[in-house]
Design brief:
This protein has helices at residues 3-29, 39-46, 48-71, 76-99, 104-114, 119-127. It contains six helices and no strands. It has a single domain, classed as Orthogonal Bundle (Helix Hairpins).
């Protein structure tokens, strides 16, 4: 499998997950998703603040897992925990994107726009 094929498969997985989140949001908005049985519907039922709070919680858990991994010299079980926490963080970011009618492709486009630009220069440009 070529690197390009792997990249396309990874992007396909991201799009599929975003599609599922968007579909669950549409079901919730249409009254066809029960927050008692659907975690995504539960998040959407709680609104923006709860979704954003969950991202903060997942970010903190990611930081702690990374610190634990560092101290364990990236033992396989700690690597797995870190990857799992980052997956949780990404998932909840997808929920937030959907809540605000955005998609992961919007984030990818922004990253591509920044490609080849110094991070320092890019950040300075945002201030003007």
């Amino acid at each position: 499998m070529t690197e390009q094929t792997k990249s396309n498969n990874n992007m396909d997985a991201i799009k599929r997950l975003a599609d599922v989140v968007d579909a669950r949001r549409a079901d919730f908005l249409a009254g066809n998703a029960n927050p008692d049985v659907s975690y995504i519907a539960k998040l959407f039922s709680k609104g923006d603040d709860a979704i954003l709070k969950k991202i903060g919680e997942e970010a903190a858990e990611t930081v702690m897992a990374a610190k634990d991994s560092r101290f364990a010299n990236l033992a396989p079980e700690m690597q797995s925990k870190l990857v799992g926490e980052i997956a949780d963080l990404w998932f909840h970011c997808f929920v937030a994107l959907s809540q605000f009618n955005l998609r992961p492709e919007d984030v990818i486009a922004e990253l591509e726009r920044r490609e080849g630009v110094s991070g320092i220069a890019e950040k300075a440009a945002r201030k003007s």
